[in-house]
Design a protein that fits this description.
GO terms for molecular function: voltage-gated potassium channel activity. It is found in: Cell membrane. This protein is an alpha+beta fold. About 60% of the residues lie in helices and about 5% in strands.
C-alpha cells in the first residue's frame, strides 16, 4: 500500500482514511511528549485500536478547530456588547445569522469536549478514555461552557420575528420589554472570554513550533487582546447605562448631542470616555458624575484601569526578564566579578584585562560549557566537536590518515581556551604538557633565531604532547585567540586503546628528535 507522511508517519491511507485528521501529527510538541517518531506511531495505533471517536490533542483537526473557535469567540466578545449598547435591536439579518451560527457552534463545542483527548504536563501519553474525559470535563469547564453557550441567538431571532409580526400595540410593547430583558441576559455570552483564554493556552501547547519565541508571541498577543476587550467593553458600558435610563437630561450622551449620531461616533465617544477614566485623565470626563450610577461607572473604570496597568507592567517586566536569561546571567556574573576585583584592590589595567577576557570568552552570554557537554550524549558531543575541530586535527601530520575512531576519541579530549592580545601562551624552555590548535586569531612564534606568525588552523606544542618536554619557542597572542588544547594526560588516555598508533608516534618522535618543533 502507498505510504504517506503526515500526522501518522508510517500508516497507510487505506488504514487511516479520514480518521487521520483525528490522530496525532508529528511535531516538536508530540516528539517532546512521546520521545520519538516510533512512539508517535504507537500512539496513533493505540488510538485506532481503541475503536472510539476521540480527537487527539495533537491532531490536525484539534489545531484547526482551536484556530476557528478563537476567531469566532473573539468576534463574539466584540460584537455582543456593540449589539446590546448601540444597535438597539436593528442589528440586521447578517448579525442575527452570525449569532445563531455562533450559538450552534458553541453548543457543538460542549458536545465535542466530551470527545476531546486530554494532555497534562506530567503525563506520558494523552488521555483517550471516554469515561476519564467525561469526568474531567464535568468537574472543570462543563458548567461555565454551558452557561456561555446558552442559545440567546435563537431566542432573539424568534422574539424579533414575533415582535415584527404582532399588530397589537400592547402586546408589541410587552414584547419590546421582553426583548430588552433578553438582550441584557445575552451578556452571559461574555463568559466566552474564559474560552478565549483556554484556546490561547491550548494553541501555545500544541503549536507546531514549540519555541520560546512562539510562546512569547502568543503571550503578548493574548495580553493585548484582553486589554483591548477590557477597553471595548468599558466603552460600550459608557453608552449602555444611559440608554437603560432612557437618556436623562444630565447624562453625557445628551450633553455631547449624540442621540442621533452614527454608531461609530457613539462608540468612539464611549471608548474615549472609558480610556480617559481608566488612565485617570480629565479628557472626556471633565464634569463630575451627575448621579450615583455615573459615579459607580467612573469608579469601576478607574479600578479596571489600575488593574490593566498593573497587569501590563507585571507581564512586560516578566517577559523582559525572561527574554534573554543568558545575557542577564552574564551581567550578574560580571557584577560579582567587579565586586571581587574591587575588594582585592587589583590594578585598573588588570581589571580591564579580566573584563575583556570574559567578553572575549563568553560574548556577553553566560553559559556553562562543561555542564552542557557533560549532559548531552557522547554521540552529540562527538558531532559538536567534529564540526568545531575536525579541520584543525586534519592539518596536524601526526593525526593525518589515522583511524576515525582514534580521531573521534581525541576530539572528546579537546578543551576550549581563550587568550587575549599580548598574552604569552607558552614560553621557550619551559616544560609543557599541552599542544594548541588555533581556531580563530593570530599569534607569533619566536625564538632567538627566527620568528613566524600563526593564524587560523595553525598548531604548536605537538612535541610536548608527545614527550612532555620543554617548549622550543615562545608563542604570544597578537589578537584575541580562540584555541583548543590537548593535554598529555588526555592524549595518553586516548592512545591506550590504539597501541599501533602509539608505536607509530613513538617512531615519529625519534625521527623528529632534532627537528626543532615547538
Amino acid at each position: 500500500m502507498e505510504k504517506f507522511k503526515g500526522p501518522t508517519t508510517g500508516f497507510t491511507k487505506a488504514t487511516c482514511g479520514w480518521r487521520a485528521l483525528l490522530l496525532p501529527q508529528l511535531n516538536r510538541q508530540s516528539l517532546y511528549v512521546y520521545g520519538s517518531e516510533v512512539a508517535v506511531e504507537k500512539e496513533c495505533k493505540r488510538q485506532l485500536e481503541s475503536g472510539v471517536f476521540v480527537i487527539h490533542p495533537f491532531s490536525p483537526m484539534r489545531s484547526y478547530y482551536i484556530m476557528v473557535m478563537m476567531a469566532i469567540t473573539f468576534l463574539n466578545l466584540i460584537g455582543i456588547p456593540m449589539e446590546i449598547a448601540f444597535l438597539d435591536g436593528d442589528s440586521g439579518l447578517a448579525w442575527e445569522s452570525f449569532n445563531v451560527f455562533s450559538d450552534t457552534l458553541f453548543l457543538l463545542d460542549v458536545v465535542l469536549n466530551f470527545r476531546m483527548g486530554i494532555i497534562t504536563e506530567d503525563a506520558e501519553e494523552a488521555i483517550l478514555d471516554i469515561k476519564k474525559i467525561r469526568v474531567s470535563y464535568l468537574r472543570t469547564w462543563f458548567i461555565p461552557d454551558v452557561i456561555a453557550a446558552f442559545p440567546i441567538g435563537y431566542i432573539l431571532l424568534f422574539a424579533d420575528l414575533h415582535y415584527h409580526n404582532d399588530d397589537n400595540p400592547s402586546k408589541a410593547n410587552k414584547m419590546m420589554r421582553i426583548l430588552m430583558f433578553v438582550r441584557i441576559l445575552s451578556l452571559i455570552r461574555l463568559a466566552r472570554v474564559s474560552r478565549l483564554v483556554r484556546f490561547f493556552n491550548e494553541v501555545e501547547k500544541v503549536s507546531n513550533a514549540n519555541l520560546e519565541v512562539v510562546r512569547l508571541f502568543f503571550r503578548i498577543l493574548s495580553l493585548f487582546m484582553m486589554i483591548f476587550l477590557l477597553c471595548h467593553w468599558n466603552g460600550c458600558i459608557q453608552y449602555f447605562v444611559p440608554m437603560l435610563e432612557e437618556f436623562p437630561t444630565d447624562c453625557w450622551v445628551r450633553k455631547e448631542n449624540l442621540m442621533n449620531s452614527t454608531v461609530i461616533v457613539k462608540y468612539s465617544w464611549g471608548v474615549f470616555r472609558a480610556l480617559s477614566q481608566m488612565i485617570a485623565l480629565s479628557y472626556g470626563s471633565m464634569d463630575a458624575p451627575t448621579n450615583y450610577i455615573e459615579m459607580w461607572i467612573v469608579m469601576v473604570s478607574m479600578v479596571s484601569g489600575c488593574m490593566m496597568y498593573t497587569i501590563l507592567v507585571a507581564n512586560a517586566t516578566t517577559m523582559i526578564a525572561n527574554l534573554d536569561p543568558a545575557a542577564k546571567e552574564y551581567k550578574s556574573k560580571m557584577s560579582r566579578l567587579e565586586h571581587y576585583m574591587a575588594f582585592m584592590k587589583l590594578p585598573p589595567e588588570l581589571q580591564l584585562r579580566i573584563s575583556n577576557y570574559y567578553q572575549a570568552r563568553y560574548g556577553g552570554k553566560w553559559f556553562d560549557e562543561k555542564y552542557i557537554m557533560d549532559t548531552i550524549s557522547s554521540s552529540l558531543k562527538e558531532q559538536v566537536l567534529m564540526v568545531m575541530c575536525s579541520q584543525l586535527l586534519k592539518k596536524v601530520p601526526m593525526f593525518q590518515n589515522r583511524d576515525e575512531n582514534f580521531i573521534n576519541d581525541v576530539l572528546l579530549k579537546l578543551h576550549y581556551e581563550v587568550f587575549q592580545e599580548g598574552d604569552v601562551i607558552v614560553r621557550q624552555n619551559v616544560p609543557g604538557d599541552r599542544m594548541f590548535f588555533i581556531d580563530h586569531g593570530e599569534a607569533v612564534m619566536e625564538t632567538e633565531s627566527y620568528e613566524r606568525e600563526l593564524c587560523d588552523g595553525d598548531f604548536f606544542g605537538e612535541t610536548c604532547v608527545l614527550t612532555k618536554g620543554k617548549h622550543l619557542a615562545t608563542v604570544k597572542a597578537l589578537t584575541d585567540c580562540q584555541c583548543f588544547s590537548l593535554s598529555w594526560d588526555d592524549f595518553q588516555e586516548a592512545l591506550r586503546g590504539f597501541p599501533d598508533i602509539k608505536k607509530d608516534l613513538e617512531k615519529m618522535v625519534l625521527v623528529n628528535a632534532d627537528g626543532g618543533v615547538v
